[in-house]
Amino acid sequence: MIPAAFSYHRASTVDEAVQLMQDLGADARLLAGGHSLLPAMKLRLARPAALIDIGRVESLRGIRQEGDRIEVGALTRHADLAGSRVPAGLEGITDCAGIIGDPQIRRRGTIGGSLCHADPAADWPAVVLALDAELVVTGAGGPRTVAAADWFVAPFMTALQPGEILTAVRFPRPPARTGSAYLKLARKASDFAIVGAAARVTVDADGRCTAAAVGVTGVGDVPYRASAVVDLLVGRVLDDAALAEAAGRAADGVDPISDVHADAAYRAHVAQVYVRRAVQAALARAGRAA
Ligand code: FAD
Fold first, then answer.
1. Would you say residue 182 lies in a domain?
2. Domain termination site, one of 137, 172, 207
3. pLDDT confidence of residue 289
4. SS3 of 150, please?
5. To 5 degrees, how large is the angle CA 8–CA 12–CA 15?
6. Whose CA is nearest to atom 1 of ligand 1?
């Protein structure tokens, strides 16, 4: 339970972190909250030769309203997001942040660390997928943005390139009459998701669904957008029968994981239940936002 030896470096700006990554090379890793990286190092699943601590880069922290979007700094802690006021339609953010791990995890862990670690059972992936977020990264070549839908490449692997740092997550401000929600069936010990579902729903004045997105975590080996569900939501008045029919497609095209926590058939079933509940919760909020 003792990590292999490493050198420790502290960056005080993003530019400094990028420079340190260039100087220290591929064996260096960024350290944010340390709540995924340090356990992996203690188990010797990760053996970085150098750690670059970004924990004091203040420009990476905080929630800003920028025109038609909300920008969340990568270093913003789960607890800060759980206690924040988000615009109508982005409620899935506070739902998610408030049920990650326990209070200690939420006070150290960061949204950026979670999205870069890309644990297939983590909660944020479902939410960034459902809320159409954009991830802002920067490296020696300057900044670029990656759509959440293109971020998760494989288990524990993202579109982040060597030498790049995630600086922010941008959530577009949703139109009127939009609601969102995140719910999960959690493992008892760690609170990671066995299945987590995020939904965003927009309705018109007659209650007909005009736009929707659903993100699912914990079911496949990477988080995904449940597009078959969305196909059956948009254009319809979402009564119980319509919701059940749409949610029945929650695991379409996915090969669910079997592990010690749940087998594939159970995960596929729970995905349907949680997608239905998340859409229902988002719909109720969309109605209230009218
Ligand atoms: P770190 O551990 O510091 O870093 C994780 C990885 O991301 C490292 O590879 C690091 O180099 C990289 N990284 C970090 N920041 C950046 C950046 N800005 N740019 C580029 N790379 C970066 N998660 C859940 O989703 N749900 C849970 O219920 C849950 N329960 C937990 C329970 C326990 C007991 C523990 C220990 C963890 C749990 N977690 C859970 C994970 C927790 O949310 C982590 O804090 C989070 O996944 C990682 O964030 P971090 O800031 O600690 O990142």
1. no
2. 172
3. 58
4. helix
5. 100
6. 34
**At residue 43, what are phi and psi to the nearest 5 degrees?**
-85, 0
Q: Which of 171, 15, 8 is nearest to 93 (CA)?
A: 171
The phi, psi pair for 172, rounded to 5°, reads: -65, 140
Provide φ and ψ at 122, rounded to 5°. Answer: -75, 160
Query: Domain tally for the chain?
Result: 3
Are both 30 and 120 inside the same structural domain? no
Domain that holds residue 119: 63-172
pTM here is 0.94
Q: What is the pLDDT of residues 54-95, one digit of tens each?
A: 999 999 999 999 889 999 999 999 999 999 999 999 999 999
Ligand 1 pocket check for 109: Cβ under 6 Å: yes
* Residue where a domain terminates, one of 33, 52, 71: 52
Q: What is the DSSP string of 48-91?
A: -SEEEE-TT-GGG--EEEETTEEEEETT-BHHHHHTS---TT-H
With a 6 A CB cut-off, is 128 part of the ligand 1 pocket?
no
Which residue's alpha carbon is at the smallest distance from atom 33 of ligand 1? 190
Q: Do the bridges between strand 50-53 and strand 7-10 make them parallel or antiparallel, or are there none, so unpaired?
A: parallel
Assigned domain for 103 exists: yes
- The C-alpha atoms of residue 169 and residue 35 are separated, in whole angstroms, by 19
For the domain that residue 47 is a member of, what is the CATH number?
3.30.43.10
